[in-house]
Amino acid sequence: MEREGLGKERKKYPLWHLHIEPLKVRLIVKQGEGEAPFTEEEVKRRLMQAGIKLPIQEEELRVALHAPPPGEYLLVEGTPPENGKDGWVEWFVQTQEEHRFVEENGRVNYLDFFRIPSVAAGDRIAQIFPPQPGKEGRGVRGEPIPPPPVRAVNIGLGQGVRPDEEGKVIYATINGYLKVKTRSGGYHISVAPTLIQSGDVDLSTGNIRFRGDIQISGNINEGMTVEADGDIRVGGNVMKATVKAGGSILVQGQAIGSHLSAGVSPLQELIFTLEKIKEDLEKVEVGLHQISQTPQGQWILQEEQQTILPVVKLLIQKINPRIGEEIKELAKERQKISLPKDWLEVIDGLQQVQVQLSHTGGSPPDITYVRFQKLLLSLKQLLKENPAEDKKDVKVVLSSLLNSKVESKGDVEVTQRGGYHSIIDAGGSVRGKGSYRGGEIRSGHRIELEEVGSQAGVRTLVEVLDPEGVVHLHKVYPETEVLIGGKGHFFTREEVKVSIRIKEGEIHLTRG
User: Fold this and answer.
1) Residue 382, Cβ neighbours under 10 Å: how many?
2) How many Å apart are CA 501 and CA 484, to the nearest integer?
3) What is d(CA 422, CA 405) in angstroms, rounded to the nearest whole number?
4) Does domain 88-192 have CATH number 2.40.50.100?
5) Cα→Cα distances 411→139, 261, 331, 444, 481, Å
6) pTM of the predicted model, to two decimals?
7) CA–CA distance, 132 with 85 (Å, rounded to integer)
8) In sequence order, which residues have a C-beta less than 8 Å from that of residue 314 and are 6 or more positions away?
9) Which residue positions in the chain have pLDDT lower than 70?
10) Residue 81: is the preceding peptide bond cis (ω within 30°)?
11) Domains of the chain: which residue ranges?
């Protein structure tokens, strides 16, 4: 204390001030001597003078008043605003091209490293979620503090896609190449029906698998695979390669040492496999129900969380012991195709079943009746929404073939130089120009060929499966066998302009 005037003593106060921010008021106390009284009443007076309306932290103020300087004390604290969330998109399919040389199992794959984002008509592509606004805060003066603004995601739609009625879910309307372009504040989504490959398909491109049409300007070179759900058009040759299309295959050049298959796409093959697995699991379900009706098996339904693995193993052993191998193959095929999330969930569930079927130790298996029923229901729903298609309106067209196999659910047409030591198998008809020497030509109901066999007597088989079918041969050489509906004729001499059909239950030849 210092004396002031007539013997009075003046109280010493430390230096202090209030540091006011929108959300905080701090009391700053420093060493030194100040003029302002440092009392509870004075601090509160200044807070009121500054317009501070939120409650004071009384305990913090009492500590500050009695603690030696320096010090910093939080007297008032507001409520900060809570940030909202901008609109966002959840994707159900692969959206960008992937280049992956190393597979999940660690193996290096130099052929299947390139994965194209492709979709089928009806696939869910994405779901759009609206922005979620934040919550308002409160400043130390009681004023509202707005949260940062949120933005809706900006979605542009091009060809091949549509929104649902509420504009929240985007669907593909065609099979094709999914294009997702990032732009300011969002995305532009479209589906192109055709994937165009300029030049050859070779090691530099990797194998191509696509859920639309594929157009290749060059050749498909040795060891490569091209698969599409739609049509495949090749401007050059197919050389020691594999080509599979859900639609037609049109090759401007020739096929050499290759396998061409039209009418069954990779996706359809997957569906066929899933159908077979579904049939087997339905039989398991029937078996489980039958066993549950016995006194010894009542627990299956009564104790729904108990493992049913031993029972499932016994049933599968009787129904189809290979189901585990079929599920393994399914998992391999899944890696080759870009699939929506609901497909992947079902296949993952089947893989878990396969792992548990081969379980020999370690952590306990968990196939319960509830999980089994849920998986089977999901599988049934998936196949109901994606039924297998029997495509008979497809065709394979090529100029010639050598040491190759051509399969078509529909027709096959060879436009120029015929086929040598090859197999042609068509569900519809076969029409071919040029010579056909060696191998087999088979169709569902009609074959028309320019020349079959050779003067050297190369054995060649021509077969129509339909008993009411017909074979037209413009020239035929010895060692050629023709079958219609299982009945045959073997040529021992050269003939021209021959039509073969069954009349009154016997093979009948018309010449001229």
Assistant:
1) 18
2) 7
3) 6
4) yes
5) 78, 11, 32, 9, 21
6) 0.60
7) 5
8) none
9) 1-10, 97-115, 301-305, 336, 338, 359-365, 390-391
10) no
11) 11-77, 88-192, 266-385, 428-512
Secondary structure of residue 279 in the 3-state scheme: helix
Whether 502 contacts 508, CB under 8 Å? yes
| Residue-level pLDDT at 384 | 86
The DSSP H or E segment spanning 408 is strand 405-408
Q: Backbone phi, then psi, for 233, in 5-degree steps?
A: -115, 130
Amino acid at 233: R
How confident is the model at residue 288, as a pLDDT?
A: 82
DSSP 187-203: EEEEEESEEEE-S-BST
Which ranges constitute the DSSP H helices of 83-227? none
Which pair of structure tokens corresponds to residue 53? 């309306």
Q: What CATH number should be reported for the domain whose range is 428-512?
A: 2.160.20.70
Of 172, 160, 170, 177, the residue nearest 115 (C-alpha): 177
Q: What is the residue-wise DSSP string for 344-404?
A: HHHHHHHHHHHHHHT--SSSPP--BHHHHHHHHHHHHHHHHHS------S-EEEEEEEES-
What is the β-pairing status of strands 24-34 and 71-77?
A: antiparallel
